[in-house]
Amino acid sequence: MSSSIRLVLVLHNHQPIGNFDGVMEQAYQDSYLPFLEVFEPYESLKLAIHTSGSLIEWLDEHHPEYLDRLAALVSAGRLEIVGGAFFEPILTMIPPRDRVGQITSYTEWLNNRLGCDVQGMWMPERVWEQTLTSDLATAGIRYTVLDDFHFKNGGWTEDQLHGYYLTENNGQLVSVFPGSEKLRYTLPFAEPHETIDYLRHVASVQPNAIVTFGDDGEKFGTWPDTKAHVYEHGWLHRFFDALVENQDWIHVTTPTEALNNVAPLGKIYIPESSYREMTEWALPAEQQKKYEDVHHSLEEQGQWEPVAPFIRGGFWRNFKVRYPETGEMYARMLEVSNRLAELRGEGQQSSQLDQAQIELYRGQCNCSYWHGAFGGVYLPHLRNAVYNHLIAADNLIDEHLGQGRTDGDWVTGEAADYNLDARHEVRLASNSLVAYAAPAAGGSLYELDIRSICHNVLATLARRPEAYHRKVLAGPAGADGDVASIHDRVVFKQEGLDKEVSVYDSYLRKSLVDHFYDLDVSLDEIATNGYREQGDFVTGSYEGKLRRAADKMQVMMTRDGHVDGHPVRITKGVTLESGGSELEIAYLLEGLPTDQPLHFGIELNFAGMPSGADDRFFHSGDGNSIGQLGERLDQIDVQSLHLVDGWLGVDCGLSIDRPTSIWTHPISTVSQSEGGFEMVHQSVVVLPHWILQADESGRWSVKLRLAIDTSQAESRMAEAECAVGN
């Protein structure tokens, strides 16, 4: 008989805020429900499950019977519910007040709904910094689970990790279980006997050891090919059978039982880190490739294993640098959090503020703030969902202040460092719209919120190099008939992706981006970035001024730049009127050469309005479609173009005071997800452009109006309210 060992199994079940109902239902049917059905008859086994708040709210609405079954297992002493931050934020990304608030509010929800006594929490993406210890302890958390990779980074060896440790910050203590990387790769991909053999080895070298498995529940059915492997081919039954057959020495227990019956192995201070793959994904693309090359080279030489514990990749917070669009989202989240905290600090209370707090927490869900083997930031519906909740929180705060969408017409304008770049941006807001302008970043608009539908039409994403693009260029590769981890799969979800990965953007895809082109440039060259930029205005710094009046606010931005060496000044003003759902945009170009024409274009982007559906289309003002969104258009001598998204119920109409040529084309990215590599539509470029000839004083001007019509969406909302009332 082997020496006894305790096995702690912790499942982490999560679906992000904004995920499609169909995706969540499929995950329920493929993973969460069948796992529970297989587990329930094994009455001698115990389990710990963490379910993220975004998923559990969906389950409570769509499958409350599943939560009732969890509650029954809790009552029977077979299931421990692991808590966490309510809506799965990366804790290092949000203020301490929100960390504690998210954790305590979720603990209360779980205790009330499932009849449990939450003792521990799941650490989202296992992103750890030592100062989190105090926040966890303040929130009433006794333990969490991190990867053994964290401990090895601190100098601990494999043989020192069969238990749990205490960690401390400012005199506050939390217990930390090291999750086994070995088990992360054997469960469920290797046959059960391999796990049993590994546990037998651990038991032989350390009697009364604790081995912890903590990983995604979606590995058991939702990840590619795992449903057939885990359930149809009986892997999970065989695994549970093996545990029962060896329960004379393998004691399957819960984290709290392990804490209560086994002393800690000691104390540890854990370096900031995450799981190994996450640290690699956090690196810049070129550094990722170098990391991978060194890794593979050392593996081939048999030298990787001794040095692996001392090698880390990047720092999670730098995802906000890798993807500046997530930095914008992060800054917007902090703005809302700070507004709310200021009012709370003044002692203000209301139902609107309570609901705004929940909307803020939902807007902190981590998934769209980073990217690795999952779609993450590359998935527009996840970015849109985050902005939806942040804008909703802002609306509720304004309602509390008596300045909501229905509190009469109003307009405000403020200048501050909204995007955390140490330079001032300008925020224009009315009942209907909120616009953020960045004078120092090309004088662009980088956020435009439609308040009635809580939608940011500038939640864009630029095309940029990724380390995995070289896998796309190398072509698809299977798993030789075996069930592979998502980290090893190379699967194409569309053909021709290798032809798309070389098109990258040198600037963020925002609006009011000012271009000067060659006279004969083509739409194809524009769409594929095969053109020459003559000017230095795209990312150049403009001087910004905020002009206030009682009934309107205006940001005026000016830059003295150059077009092929010739000095040119651009002045552009963006005006929002009281109660307005329209932006007036005026351009004045000065210093233009009078003896030659120039090709000038103003780029606008519209995000969250996908292509490929008949109710998402362009029209020229009469409502009749002239092409689906995402199609390339070459309109000549027109003065208007509208973009309609019937699902959102919005019509974005651009009108121009002089005859104009307009190009449109989609921005799509080649990105990876757990299902493989795919093209993802990110935004629609609308590009009015002119071959302009200056007047005798070297001047040229144009005025544009961007009108946002949400009458269709508001009509639906009114009908829905009537239906609820009846």
Folded structure, characterized:
It is built from 21 helices and 26 strands. The chain is an alpha+beta fold. The strands form three sheets. Strands 15, 16, 17, 18, 19, 20, 21, 22, 23, 24, 25 and 26 form a twelve-stranded antiparallel sheet that branches.
Q: Which class best fits the helix and strand makeup?
A: alpha+beta
Taking pLDDT < 50 over at least 5 consecutive residues as the criterion, the unreliable ranges are 483-487
Average pLDDT rating: 94
Terminal residue distance = 69 Å
Give the beta-strand count. 26
Number of helices: 21
Radius of gyration: 28 Å
Gross morphology is globular
Topology, element by element:
Layout: E1 5-13, H1 21-39, E2 47-51, H2 53-62, H3 64-75, E3 79-84, H4 96-114, E4 120-122, H5 132-138, E5 143-147, H6 148-153, E6 165-169, E7 172-179, H7 181-186, H8 192-205, E8 209-216, H9 226-232, H10 235-245, E9 250-253, H11 255-261, H12 276-281, H13 285-300, H14 304-307, H15 319-322, H16 324-345, H17 351-362, H18 380-400, E10 411-416, E11 425-430, E12 433-438, E13 444-450, E14 455-456, H19 469-474, E15 513-517, H20 523-527, E16 543-548, E17 552-563, E18 566-577, E19 582-590, E20 598-607, E21 616-619, E22 625-628, E23 633-645, E24 650-673, E25 676-692, E26 700-709, H21 711-725
Parallel strand pairs: 1-2, 1-8, 1-9, 2-3, 3-4, 4-5, 5-7
Antiparallel strand pairs: 6-7, 10-11, 11-12, 12-13, 13-14, 15-20, 16-17, 17-18, 18-19, 19-26, 20-25, 21-22, 21-23, 23-24, 24-25, 24-26
